[in-house]
Amino acid sequence: MAETNGSLERPALKNDRYLRALLKQPVDVTPVWMMRQAGRYLPEYKATRAVAGDFMSLCKNAELACEVTLQPLRRFPLDAAILFSDILTIPDAMGLGLYFETGEGPRFERPITCKADVDRIGVPDPEGELQYVMNAVRTIRRELKGDVPLIGFSGSPWTLATYMVEGGSSKAFTKIKKMAFAEPQVLHALLGKLADSVTSYLNAQIAAGAQSVMVFDTWGGVLSPRDYKEFSLQYMQRIVEGLTRESEGRRVPVTLFTKNGGMWLEAIAATGCDAVGLDWTIDIAEAKARVGDKVALQGNMDPSMLYAPPARIEQEVGDILAGFGEGTGHVFNLGHGIHLDVPPEHAGVFVDAVHRLSAQYHK
């Protein structure tokens, strides 16, 4: 493929309904993709991961990361691909020593405990320590051949900080909340560095070929309303304000997703993002009534519904589509990531139902 001014000439997008829906433009049917669609519920993913050896080796191999990104698109008529990577790439690049404990999830050898630890870390170079992510983005864009758009992503500063301070996954979040309430200046210094890192990281993904970006604030919902705005939302807004919003001649939409963030929809919508992700704990009709004229909405079927018989899955899809109602501005998704033991054929029922049942709302 020809190089022009340092960037690749890329084929025209054949299916852009996902990007159009995020910008509240007309579509023929409601677009659909699934959080964690490239992953461990698929036997072909497990086979590719076995070739890689371990999870991070899979993330760091551009060809294999591309392969697992494309696997769900071969099975299902999804309207977007999402970069196969992990939210903890930034803390890993900051030198915290990321590793994965069997059955325990991610851990850090050198967690952040004090101001000196925060002072020691820098903003990673996206084409340096994180170049493997950009290589994966470039490879995936090339291999997609314009079939569907590619979504880039990052964790939110607050969510990344929880792992960095707790040293891994947590249930009570006592260490980071202790820092928030006893030494807030230390946490704000960390969150500031993370906001700068995420902005730089997402802009590099856009430059490498991501056509939309998403910020996952998985743990924002553990905060009180006041603390959410202070420690999570203001830093996501800073990222939104610093993002490249146009590339390759079209708008690059940004979606913010806070799990258990339904009470803060208006505040999230006011950040300047294009879309707000919803988990399953809020009714989509209520969400649309509250913020639907300002932003698009993404969501929001309970991932566990994919354990149900096909007829029940279709019923749930129909109910959510009816809740959103007519018009554009809805990207159908699960309210969080697909579970690892969901039968792949149930995911297929879900995707087909969204396309088939949504056409009536887009006449």
Automatic annotation (TrEMBL):
Residues spanning the membrane: none
GO MF terms held by the record: uroporphyrinogen decarboxylase activity
Pathways per UniProt: Porphyrin-containing compound metabolism; protoporphyrin-IX biosynthesis; coproporphyrinogen-III from 5-aminolevulinate: step 4/4
Subcellular locations according to the entry: Cytoplasm
EC number: 4.1.1.37
Top-rank lineage group of the source organism: Bacteria
Keyword terms: Cytoplasm, Decarboxylase, Lyase, Porphyrin biosynthesis
Record site feature (Transition state stabilizer), residues: D86
Catalytic reactions of this protein: uroporphyrinogen III + 4 H(+) = coproporphyrinogen III + 4 CO2
Residues annotated as domain Uroporphyrinogen decarboxylase (URO-D): 31-40, 151-167
Sites where the protein binds substrate: R36, Q37, A38, G39, R40, D86, Y163, T218, H336
Protein purpose: Catalyzes the decarboxylation of four acetate groups of uroporphyrinogen-III to yield coproporphyrinogen-III.
Record-stated family: Belongs to the uroporphyrinogen decarboxylase family.
Subunit organization: Homodimer.
UniProt name for this protein: Uroporphyrinogen decarboxylase
Organism of provenance: Alteromonas oceani
